Amino acid sequence: MRKQSTGEALTWGYSKENGPDSWHTSYPIAKGNNQSPVAILSKDVFKDPALLPWFTGYDPGAAKNIRNTGKTLRIAFDDTFDRSVLRGGPLPGIYRLRQLHIHWGSTSDKGSEHVVDAKRHAGEIHLVHWNSSYSNYADALRKTDGVATIAILMEVGKNPKPEMKRIIEEIDAIKTKGKEAPFLNFDPSILFPQNRSYYTYQGSFTTPPCEECVTWIVMKEPISVDEQQMLKLRSLSSNSAEDPHCPLQDNWRPLQPLNNRMIRSTCQ
């Protein structure tokens, strides 16, 4: 069981002093063999005929709130029963949606965590689900098939996805760390790219404690955002309201070694 004192919870971040290079000192698994994110080279990916399409059934009523955690923007969903679920693809069962969060850079040539064919995107959206065959989320974190995360890469383009607007509109309500606002009636599947083909591999959370319990579903097709939307994300502060504004940006973890893992993709 992992307990964390408030002091310890504050020790990690993305600055030189407490950034990803030092996470392993408090969280040894961060140096494990199955860490994320990784570089994906499409020519080396195993095209697996056994991989199925994946499906989501999300209840918009499960969306609860949007929060500035000081490390990211996070939207929480009600996961007390199989209300918003992910199934199929590489997964053995039904996974419940727990939260969505975003990683982004200080400029639009960086910000994503996964890198595909040497290209780093402006940002990356993660939808975190847990395997409902386990008794609760904490229990799922201890199992190798406990969590499934869909990663959607964001690139700056001419035709931004209008659906991002709903999230961007709430940013003024959560400008500083710890600020939270109701975020109701939201179906995150509107953020998915048209093409549902994906890469998948076994990895970890990209934030401490970096538990190695995640089946990644990385969407091949990025979604389009515009520079104004990225600027809005960068306008968040990683400090609370009492402290000086400190831009919340570059909240991405560098690439981790693939080691002996196989990245698979659908055949199409």
Automatic annotation (TrEMBL):
Keyword annotations of the record: Acetylation, Cytoplasm, Glutathionylation, Lyase, Metal-binding, Phosphoprotein, Zinc
GO molecular function: carbonate dehydratase activity; zinc ion binding
Keyword Disulfide bond tagged: no
EC top class named in words: lyase
InterPro entries per record: CA_dom, CA_dom_sf, Carbonic_anhydrase_a-class, Carbonic_anhydrase_a-class_CS
Highest taxon above the source species: Eukaryota
Database matches in SUPFAM superfamilies: Carbonic anhydrase
Entry's EC annotation: 4.2.1.1
Transmembrane among keywords: no
Main location: cytoplasm
Family of this protein: Belongs to the alpha-carbonic anhydrase family.
Function statement: Reversible hydration of carbon dioxide.
Name of this chain's protein: Carbonic anhydrase
Species of origin: Pantherophis guttatus
